[in-house]
Amino acid sequence: MGDLGGKARTLRSQLQQAWPSIRKDLPDDRLWQHEWNKHGICSLRRMNKSDYFQAVIRETGRISLLSILQSVHIVAGSHIAYTKNQFDTAMRNSIGTDIYVSCASLDNTHVLLKELYICLDSTATSYINCPKT
């Protein structure tokens, strides 16, 4: 975040509220740098790093992922298994586009939800269908 100049302190504070890391082994700064390197850098033709993170902040204020999932009784930490289709349907009904669901195997019979991708167009103003892979 250091390369954002004087905006860095305000942006960091906003990101800590909007997009904190939920992993103990991944500090906020490393999460944000990873996300910029993996996803944000693709938007360089249209927006700089600061604009990218402002779009993230705007979008987290625009939708509440937890509220969307809770409205269809998908609850984090419960011992209930959910299908990929349940996540897809909940998000499609809410934002009107297809998301990408990423999972990780826990063992031979259990899979853990890893990430839900919500995709935006190159201007970060409209939702678009995420690629299937």
TrEMBL record:
It comes from the Eukaryota. It holds the Pfam family Ribonuclease_T2. Belongs to the RNase T2 family. This is Uncharacterized protein. It comes from Ilex paraguariensis (yerba mate). The lineage of its organism: Eukaryota, Viridiplantae, Streptophyta, Embryophyta, Tracheophyta.
